[in-house]
Amino acid sequence: EGICNGIDVAMTEETLFVDGHRLQQQIDQLSSFSDTPPPSVTRILFTGNDVAARRYVKGAMKEVGLLVREDAIGNIFGRWEGSIPRIPGVASGSHTDAIPYAGKYDGVVGVLGAIAAVRALKRIGFQPKRSIEVIMFTSEEPTRFGFGCLGSRMMANSTNIVEILKESFDAENVSFAEAAKEAGYLDVADELETVALDVGRYSAFVELHIEQGPILEKKGIPIGIVTAIAAPASLKVGFKGDGGHAGAVLMPVRNDAGLAGAELALSVEKNVLASGSTDTVGTTGVFKIHPGAVNSVPRESHLEIDIRDIDEKRRDKVVDEIKRSAHEIAGRRRVTLTNFEIVNQDPPAQSGDQVVGAAIEAAELLGLEYQTMVSRAYHDSLFMARIAPMGMIFIPCYKGYSHRPDEFASLEDMTKGVQVLSLTLKRLSSL
Amino acid sequence: EGICNGIDVAMTEETLFVDGHRLQQQIDQLSSFSDTPPPSVTRILFTGNDVAARRYVKGAMKEVGLLVREDAIGNIFGRWEGSIPRIPGVASGSHTDAIPYAGKYDGVVGVLGAIAAVRALKRIGFQPKRSIEVIMFTSEEPTRFGFGCLGSRMMANSTNIVEILKESFDAENVSFAEAAKEAGYLDVADELETVALDVGRYSAFVELHIEQGPILEKKGIPIGIVTAIAAPASLKVGFKGDGGHAGAVLMPVRNDAGLAGAELALSVEKNVLASGSTDTVGTTGVFKIHPGAVNSVPRESHLEIDIRDIDEKRRDKVVDEIKRSAHEIAGRRRVTLTNFEIVNQDPPAQSGDQVVGAAIEAAELLGLEYQTMVSRAYHDSLFMARIAPMGMIFIPCYKGYSHRPDEFASLEDMTKGVQVLSLTLKRLSSL
Ligand SMILES: [Mn+2]
Ligand SMILES: [Mn+2]
Ligand SMILES: [Mn+2]
Ligand SMILES: [Mn+2]
Known about the structure:
The first copy, chain A, is of the alpha/beta class.
């Protein structure tokens, strides 16, 4: 099956040493920068803990000899110069931000793991032909301004993202520019256009990540190689009614915006199930009502909805059905549909054959069992696929849990993942 | 019909002058103590603005010659000594706290209006036989610690309220004792038992209030005289599921606590409508989900539900049905019902015949049209009814709106209300 083709014989699992304990220690240290107590991790864009995590990552990059730079949106790059510096390099990375009450592995394994891979490759005296760059992407999570994969989205020059961002506010009504300024990104608003990279800037991009699903763990397979990433869409919906006193406003004259929201959340579930495929998922992850007092009829509700599928058309049909539902509910309950915003509706991404091939070769060379699979969670890889051939390496995580304090990946599995990443980077940077 | 019996002929609408403009000015001034911008008013127990409002009310009481004292829970009393000080006095008052984004009339009209009534009675040279006390009750709204009518509830020596309060925390996990201390009520926890008053301490209690419903305005009637107050119950419900990543956790294995909450909110509506009476009302006024990120399946939901009826048994049946629903939803959706707490489930109150009679006499003497009615909102009067014959005087408010920034009562209607209150107090304090 062509194992070992183009892989130096000296680079087997015998000589490649990945320091798993050091990686675990760094993951634990990074998890201490959190707005909520351990074991939970909460690290939101441009907060004090996000800034602290950035400082930590830059330090870890420098420690392994990488040349560190940062772009206007705060994407951090650690460069290992190749022997032919002018040709496109190979990049690998992920994110370190974390949604409220999440865990310490999501994203972090792919950033600190890529640094560990560089360390392992340097230890065996490898000299890449193409430069290798480790990337920490800004705000993969959509928590603060509603956009997932902000850093990679901008790198991939996503339509209008810069304009939209300039007019974005967080839940506390802090503008993007103010938030960036507070984090020390002083002139960010003027330089956002400089973040976009040309197609072909990198010859390949590969991301190491926990699976965030139960398949690998259940089957006892240590490595997943991603062939496609499911297509995410996210919506913001608002309803508004008259509100009023919970005792005095009688039921027949009410137009309760909270109940309209409750119906829409249930309609999301119903429409997703109606797709008939278990690959379709839909979630109302944000549900807020105003004024939010026990004796007050809700006047306003605000929902944020996430719909994904590996089939773009099927997903878009669900989005259409939810929109129809929102209008129907508003009409029937005599509330106003104040907002139905499709925040993003991205196409799915296919992995690059060469990247998948290099990862398969690496796993086989290391004698590690692997399987190819689809990623139902989106990742920065989804956007990097627009400017470079992309691939992802998954490792198992406990019960498939993610975005939870008890998210967990074993030191052994992380070590195997970094080994595969190391040999994949070695291969891709030699091509 | 016995009009004018026992009412001094000199005290007609010709001689009784209520300074409506001064009342309006005081209401406007008080509304400036708010955590949210005008026209909304937000004034939560023991916050800086609540403390400022208390200072303002004490000042207004002193200005009209009342002797001011305050009990351990912060109920404020302004006393006009009667000619026979040792016999039970007559009390009148309401509250000045306001739920988030409420208006400036709810409660306030009954506190500043009672002060205006004292001013009007003093102006005509009236000397009460029984003392007249104006009361500002602490935390009529349940916003911070979940108990409505905290001050009057404690005055009426409600079962276990002191013990429960000592173990109560607000949404930011601040204990009641800490919150009180911050507001300057240093030893409140040790003295809470002293707030309770004996039955018979007052010979009568009467509260002036906006209707918080549309009836008086619609009919063009300036005065409502309350014969009974509907019975409120409030519930706190919590669901907990496994949560997880919105992309990776497939629908068949989810147990979404947010959707369980959405179903329960709709079930509240369904069960209330099933009572068959428009007098039954039910509201899910608080609905929070955790962690509250668009790409995270809700792990926890927290609902606060308010159920009222003028028929206690019918209301209790609705509460039972909601409880059954909560269990059924939890079972079907494989979430845990972590909490189903009946925070309070109070009996309705009947007005005292003598108080109703005095108010009717007052309205007739003033030539004002009135109607008797039921209060569907609860008030401090609900609890004062346990220790004294109670009555309420309602005035119209714009479209029946309350607990909204556009809550409004006209100067003319407020003036008429204070006139009726003045003559009612005059009558009751002379008996
Ligand atoms: Mn994530
Ligand atoms: Mn991630
Ligand atoms: Mn109120
Ligand atoms: Mn009130």
